[in-house]
Design brief:
By secondary structure, this protein is an alpha+beta fold. The chain has one domain: CBS-domain (Roll). It has a three-stranded antiparallel β-sheet. β1 and β2 form a beta hairpin. α4 packs across α5. The protein is elongated and about 100 Å long. The chain starts with about 40 loop residues before the first helix and ends with a helix. The relative contact order is 0.20.
């Protein structure tokens, strides 16, 4: 009697969906923003209270015009001491970094990683059709890489 081999009905092959690689999927959406008229003292208090190191500066029309960071505050603190000028009277517009590097929301985390490497920035505003929709940090990119590791590079 011949031997018959039995195989159950084969399941249809459905490839696993890969994790997204887009900036929009890893960025922070709820941002603390600043205005050019705010005082540096107020900015410093907000940075400390919220445990952040900087944030975007928006004009009255919600257009991105700069970034203010701890480094900007420290720079102007040292300059005011050197020139013997009051520091806390200074406004964000006088201290912020203008024309910041940005990245579009539809770029990949590899694009933003390259930009971080080239510019030595810690965070980048994320734009969609010219409007600020979020911010991505170096830490966000590292988190994304860890999530992708098991999907893309063979986690054993």
């Amino acid at each position: 009697m011949p031997i018959k081999s039995f195989q159950a009905a084969r399941q249809k092959f459905v490839p696993k969906r890969r994790k997204s690689l887009l900036v929009r999927d890893y960025m922070t959406r709820d941002l603390i923003t600043f205005t050019p008229q705010q005082s540096i003292l107020e900015v410093m208090r907000i940075l400390i209270r919220n445990k952040i190191s900087g944030g975007p500066v928006l004009d009255d029309m919600s257009n991105l015009i700069g970034i203010i960071s701890e480094a900007d505050c420290i720079k102007h603190l040292s300059e005011s001491k050197y020139f013997n000028q009051p520091f806390f009277d200074r406004k964000v517009a006088q201290s912020m970094s203008e024309n910041p590097n940005t990245i579009e929301a539809d770029k990949t985390i590899f694009d933003v990683a390259t930009l971080f490497h080239k510019t030595n920035r810690r965070r980048l505003p994320v734009l969609e059709q010219g409007r600020l929709i979020g911010q991505i940090s170096r830490q966000d990119v590292v988190k994304a890489a860890l999530l992708l590791r098991s999907q893309r590079w063979g986690n054993k």
